[in-house]
Amino acid sequence: MEKEELFNYQKLTEEQLQTYNEQGYLILKGVIKPQGLEQMRAECMKAWNKEKESFDPNKSWLQNSLLVNVHHQAPTVKQYYFEGPLVSVATQIIGENVKGATSQLTFKMKGNTKPFGWHQDNGYGELDPYNALTTLSALDDTDRGNGCLWLIPGSHKQGQIRVEQNAEQKQSQSEIIVEADDSKAIPMEMKAGDSLIFNCWMLHKSDGNYSTDRDRRILFLRYADADAIEVYNNRKPRLGKLVNGHTKFHEVEEFEADL
C-alpha cells in the first residue's frame, strides 16, 4: 500500500515551530490514517506476542512495557519510522542531516499501574548535539484513565539535568528520576493516530494504567542529528539509519537498519 494511503504528510508552520521552540512540544493530529493504524496494530501485536507475556507486577519496566526495535518485525512501522511524515518534521527541527536513533513499542497494558517518574529522554541516552527529538505516536486513544504522558511546558529550557548514580544503580539500569513541580504538568491526551513530539530535555512522566478494559500502545521513535554521538559511551557515534542528508561517520552511512 502506498505511504500516502497510510500516513498524513505535513509540514510544520512557522507558528508551530515557534510554539515548539517556546513550549518544547507539539501534538500533531491524525498523522497515521485508519488503514495505517490497523496495519501497525496487527504487526505490533504479532511481534509483542512472539516475545512478551501478560503483565506481571514482579517484572521490570523493560519486561512489562517495552519492545525494542519494533520496526524489525513490523513493516508498516519501519516504513513510518524511515519514510513517514515524522522524518520531514525532524528535518525542520533538527536540520537536514537526520538519523533514526530509537524505535520502541511502549505497551502499558490495562492493570499495569506502575508509574514512570519525571525524567528527560536525554538523561537515559545522552546525545550530543542536544537537539534530538522524541516522537510518541498513539496506537490507542490515550488519556488520564489509561496512563497518558504528562509534561511541563517550557521545562526543556533548563537544559540537561545531571543525576548522580552509583555503580550499582548504573549496573541495574535503574530509573533516572528528577525533581519536578507537578502543579505545572499538563496531560498529553491524544486520539489514536496523533503524534506528540518533544525536545530531548523535556521533563515528562506517565502514570499507571488504571483502566480495566483499555490498553495504551505508543510508538516511541527518536530522531537525532546524523552526526550525534553518545556522551555516555566514550562519545562514539550513535548508530541508526540515515533518513535524510548525510553524515561524517562511515559507521552511520553504512548502518544496516535491520541488524
Task: Give a short overview.
Helices cover 27% and strands 24% of the residues.
Structure, described:
The chain is α+β, with helices and mostly antiparallel strands. It has a single domain, classed as Jelly Rolls, CATH 2.60.120. The protein has helices at 3-6, 14-23, 34-51, 61-65, 75-83, 85-93, 121-124, 167-172, 250-253, and strands at residues 25-28, 66-68, 98-108, 116-119, 127-128, 133-138, 149-151, 186-188, 195-199, 204-206, 216-225, 229-230, 236-237, 242-244. Its cofactor is Fe(2+). This is Phytanoyl-CoA dioxygenase family protein. InterPro entries: Phytyl_CoA_dOase-like.
Report the top-level CATH class.
Mainly Beta
- Tell me the β content: 15-25%
| Shape designation | globular
At the fourth level of CATH, the homologous superfamily is: q2cbj1_9rhob like domain
Overview features:
259 residues; alpha+beta; Jelly Rolls; seven-stranded antiparallel sheet; four-stranded antiparallel sheet; 24% strand
Write the layout of secondary structure elements.
Layout: H1 3-6, H2 14-23, E1 25-28, H3 34-51, H4 61-65, E2 66-68, H5 75-83, H6 85-93, E3 98-108, E4 116-119, H7 121-124, E5 127-128, E6 133-138, E7 149-151, H8 167-172, E8 186-188, E9 195-199, E10 204-206, E11 216-225, E12 229-230, E13 236-237, E14 242-244, H9 250-253
Antiparallel strand pairs: 1-9, 2-3, 3-11, 3-14, 4-10, 5-12, 6-9, 6-11, 7-8, 7-10, 12-13
Pfam families: PhyH
Cofactor: Fe(2+)
Keywords: Dioxygenase, Oxidoreductase
